[in-house]
């Protein structure tokens, strides 16, 4: 697919599709990302959380979502959580439809999002901790120039069960070398 991609901040209309991506995904798909599927009611709180994000200034955001569009149609989202403004955040990446995976769109989405994350949140470091058994995000991080730090067992976020993750980091210096 050689179409134009752009990245933009989410708005109210993006909340439903993002929540649907999570709620409508098969359990096996969620488990493959290390998500604890024993209580899927956790997704019910997402709209309120995303509305709070929209109403919060950059300096205080705990999460920050961006949507990727191809020819004006939203195809996925990338977001950061664990945001410490002026310091660091953890990045996540999701294409919504299987048919669009593996064609370069996910890595392009994150490449376009990196300047936005680094600039708006004044980051010194961006972190990605992906399930070690999930090749797509791990290969994507390598492709984007993130440095592999280690593989270890942890509970990366509240939604996860304990799992082996691979930790990747992109420093501001490396970001500036590669992307500006
Ligand atoms: C992760 C994701 C956004 C990557 O986007 P994508 O468009 O599929 O990836 P790209 O086509 O840009 O490929 C990037 C790299 O990953 C590799 N890759 C992609 N899918 C892969 C797969 N299923 N198996 C092995 N490698 C894969 C590509 O070959 C490429 O690496 P290379 O340049 O060294 O060959 C997408 O696959 C996705 O949404 N997956 C499901 C959600 C998910 O697992 N998110 C991560 C949670 S931490």
General description of the model:
The chain starts with a strand and ends with a helix. The chain has a seven-stranded mixed beta sheet with strand order 1-2-3-4-5-7-6, sandwiched between helices. The protein has a domain at 5-126: Aminopeptidase (3-Layer(aba) Sandwich). It is built from six helices and seven strands, in the order E-H-H-H-E-E-E-H-E-H-E-E-H. The model has no long low-confidence stretch (mean pLDDT 95). The chain has 180 residues and is an alpha+beta fold. Bound molecules: coenzyme A.
Show the helix and strand layout:
Layout (H helix, E strand, L loop, with lengths): L4 E5 L2 H12 L3 H6 L13 H9 L9 E7 L2 E12 L3 E8 L9 H16 L4 E7 L3 H10 L2 E8 L8 E9 H8 L1
Parallel strand pairs: 4-5
Antiparallel strand pairs: 1-2, 2-3, 3-4, 5-7, 6-7
Helix pairs in contact: 1-3, 4-5
**Which term fits the overall shape?**
globular
Radius of gyration: 15 Å
Query: Order of strands across the widest beta sheet?
Result: 1-2-3-4-5-7-6
Largest beta-sheet characterization:
7 strands, mixed
Keywords:
single chain; 180 residues; alpha+beta; Aminopeptidase; seven-stranded mixed sheet; 34% helix; globular; binds coenzyme A
Short description:
The chain is an alpha+beta fold and 180 residues long. The protein has 6 helices and 7 strands, in the order E-H-H-H-E-E-E-H-E-H-E-E-H. The chain binds coenzyme A.
